[in-house]
Amino acid sequence: MTISELQSCLADAVAMGMDGDCEVRLQTQSNYPLENHVRGVVLASELADGDDSSPLLDDGDVFYIVEGSQIGYGHESAFEMAVTQL
After folding, report:
1. How far apart are CA 35 and CA 73, in angstroms?
2. Residue 42, Cα to own-chain centre: how many angstroms?
3. Residue 33: enclosing H or E segment and its boundaries?
């Protein structure tokens, strides 16, 4: 997923009536689904400490959504639905 694709998904959610203040959470592990808070975001270039030879930058910059604390069990169906929407 690219930043543009993520922006489009978020715009679609708002257009369908979702409140812009709705909390964003992260679903992980499709075989044992868990739900997590989002700790924050970081660019791979920020992780490189100014070293242009870092393997993190081989394919261009990457925008990471960083997992926060675990909330509880997730929803298996979220993985099936996410695949059909992309």
Report:
1. 6
2. 11
3. none
Buried b (16+ CB within 10 A) or exposed e, 1-22: eeeeeeeeeeeeeeeeeeeeee
41 and 61 in contact (C-beta within 8 Å)?
no
Of the two residues 36 and 53, the one the predictor is more confident about is 36
Averaged pLDDT for residues 26-38: 95
Give the Cα separation of 55 and 48 in Å (integer).
Answer: 9
Mean pLDDT of the chain: 86
The domain locations on the chain are 23-85
CA dihedral 52, 58, 61, 63 (to 10 degrees): -120
Q: Would you say residue 57 has pLDDT above 60?
A: no
pTM (predicted TM-score): 0.76
Length of the chain: 86
Who's near 67: CB < 8 A, 6+ residues apart? 26, 28, 36, 37, 38, 39
